[in-house]
Amino acid sequence: MKKVMVRLAMTLLALVLVLALAGCAAVQEVKKNEAADKEQLLAAAGFKVKLADTPQKMTNLQALPQRQLFTKERQGKVYYLYADALNCKCLYVGDQAAYQRFQELQVERQIAAQQRMAAEMNYESQFDWDMYGPWDPWW
Asked: How many structural domains compose the chain?
């Protein structure tokens, strides 16, 4: 009986570990997709892509804050930077105009998403689901 309980406990522990790893993988995939979306907006806004194509550049890139916009002043000008050492292995660099365009694109994307959601909700409210009869799976 004790062996059965130990085996059951080990099986449950293994199941919990598998589920936890699957959850972590899903979260990582969402973060990767969010980063890719942001990088598309950065490129569309006029940010320049600087590839980390040498080991020294990659080391430098990894030392920067990852997947977040930050500013850096260089030769009296303010630049906006976005480092991604995991996906594109690159650094996005933009000036004030590119940053403003990036912000505009973010707002436009948010408005489009809200309009799409409102249109879907409007469609749902107008559709007559009862015209198809009962939805019971045993009919």
From this structure: 1
